[in-house]
Backbone:
């Protein structure tokens, strides 16, 4: 798990490139969003790029304080 104070604190190098499930949590540890990815690092990193994000994604990112993940063997296992 990684902790971030603001979206600018995000460092993608801490997240593995394996397939898996990612969980975005707020400051109380409440799950805001769960997603799956073939490669966790680029998928999670995509939320923090400021390029043409929908308003709901920008709002989500404002509230993320913890990112957790579960690594699996392949994308199908993440379902």
Residues:
């Amino acid at each position: 798990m990684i902790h971030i104070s603001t979206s600018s604190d995000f460092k993608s190098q801490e997240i593995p490139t394996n397939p898996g499930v990612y969980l975005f949590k707020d400051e109380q540890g409440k799950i805001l969003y769960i997603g799956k990815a073939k490669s966790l690092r680029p998928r999670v990193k995509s939320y923090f790029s400021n390029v043409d994000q929908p308003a709901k994604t920008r709002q989500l990112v404002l509230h993320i304080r913890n990112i957790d993940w579960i690594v699996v063997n392949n994308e199908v296992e993440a379902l």
